[in-house]
Amino acid sequence: MRELEKIFKALSEMGRLRILNLFFYTDKLYPCEIESILNMSQTRISRNLNILLDASFLKQKREGKYVSYFLSDNLNEGLANFLKGRLKDFEQIKTDYEKLKSFKTKKTNIICKNDK
After folding, report:
1. How much is the pTM?
2. What CATH number is associated with residue 96?
3. Which of 41, 72, 74, 115 has the CA that lies 20 to 30 A from 8?
4. CB neighbour list of residue 51: distance below 8 Å, 6 or more residues apart
């Protein structure tokens, strides 16, 4: 029952759905990339990534001093397709997708130039 609660918690907030949706269209992201694309604070991104990790929707990988995130193999394909199908009609999701495409095309990352 606890696992089901984690799943519903992860899906119960639009910010987390926006983050999760990005991963349907790219192989990995760094938190600073998500910040730039979604225009959310680092604190909010971090909290939401942890909830998505806890629900086993995402995994993380340490790469030197950086951590990248990617979709977990545990994410049910049917659920992923359901979410993609439902989210695609939201204007904010469309905007996020366009910003992701632009971000990845420009390669503006260089692991987020604002490394402090």
Report:
1. 0.90
2. 1.10.10.10
3. 41
4. 6, 9, 10, 16
